[in-house]
């Protein structure tokens, strides 16, 4: 989410409009809020509770980005997503107050918080607040907002109060799991000038701690796509969700990765075709891409996600000459 934070700062309000136009949905690391009572940038009690909840929830989970100034709710199609802009009046005052409040709204105090404002052209002096929260190594963190002395966690697209067993686990934990990615190439079948392979993506637990609720997010795929369980393609090992070119795989409560072991996360199909001029090329690849490519973010509950851009070589696929 730090990448999105930096991208929105570079794009300005056009980036906010893009998120709304793409009907972006909230998820584990992204939350939208609108300021309910807007008195020219005044930081209200509700604002303190909203910010403290996000700081605690993101820091105690995988980290994330809070954007204040976007209304997210179910539309006519009942899909809950970014629907409309609601820029904050008096954004400079709101930003200054938010910076002052961060150190008082959470205990123990947080490192790794970035906060910035984006100006809006819709109303003079209005804008949007971005708050990036890094996963904390000192968790759990408690909200110190008035009437809200609670610990929060992020699950799915919502914040929840941590239950007793969550807190017991968090206080007893001396470390966090570390998840890395491992990709194995398998041959599926071929006929004539076509060969099909499957990339088996695994999460590898390189730590001494059990990894729970593993997940994998794929973006910017070129020359490859998730298998669909038909036409010689193996079925997916985990629940898959696809939205606006981003493909996500989520493990459930039983999908743990024990220390020193791997968990099969996803199958990705790569199809090569051969012509007389260029030789073997991946089907549906971007112009000039001789091998498949994608960006993968992999992680689990309570662990900082890792971002990978695997590098493939044509020789890895053992194609006929």
Automatic annotation (TrEMBL):
Protein name: Schlafen AlbA-2 domain-containing protein
Cited Gene3D superfamilies: Schlafen, AAA domain
Name of a matching Pfam family: SLFN_AlbA_2
Residues covered by the Schlafen AlbA-2 domain: 30-159
């Amino acid at each position: 989410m730090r990448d999105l934070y930096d991208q929105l700062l570079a794009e300005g309000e056009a980036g906010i409009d893009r998120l709304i136009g793409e009907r972006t949905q909230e998820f584990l690391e992204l939350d939208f809020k609108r300021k309910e009572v807007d008195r020219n940038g005044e930081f209200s009690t509700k604002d303190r509770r909203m910010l403290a909840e996000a700081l605690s929830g993101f820091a105690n989970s995988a980290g994330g980005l809070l954007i204040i100034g976007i209304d997210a709710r179910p539309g006519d199609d009942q899909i809950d997503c970014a629907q409309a802009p609601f820029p904050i009046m008096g954004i400079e005052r709101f930003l200054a107050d938010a910076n002052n409040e961060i150190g008082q709204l959470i205990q123990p105090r947080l490192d790794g918080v970035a906060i910035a404002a984006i100006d809006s052209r819709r109303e003079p002096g209005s804008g949007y607040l971005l708050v990036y929260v890094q996963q904390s190594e000192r968790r759990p963190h408690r909200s110190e907002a008035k009437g809200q002395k609670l610990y929060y966690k992020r699950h799915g697209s919502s914040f929840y109060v941590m239950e007793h067993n969550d807190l017991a686990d968090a206080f007893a934990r001396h470390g966090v799991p570390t998840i890395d990615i491992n990709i194995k190439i398998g041959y599926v079948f071929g006929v004539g000038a076509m060969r099909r392979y499957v990339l088996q993506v695994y999460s590898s637990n390189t730590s001494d701690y059990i990894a729970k609720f593993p997940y994998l997010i794929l973006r910017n795929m070129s020359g490859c796509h998730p298998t669909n369980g038909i036409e010689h393609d193996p079925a997916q090992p985990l629940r898959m969700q696809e939205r606006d070119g981003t493909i996500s795989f989520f493990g459930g409560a039983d999908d743990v990765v024990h220390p020193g072991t791997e968990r099969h996360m996803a199958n990705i199909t790569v199809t090569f075709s051969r012509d007389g001029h260029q030789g073997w090329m991946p089907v549906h690849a971007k112009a000039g891409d001789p091998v498949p490519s994608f960006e993968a973010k992999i992680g689990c509950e309570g662990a900082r996600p890792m971002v990978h851009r695997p590098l493939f070589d044509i020789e890895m696929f053992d194609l006929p000459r």
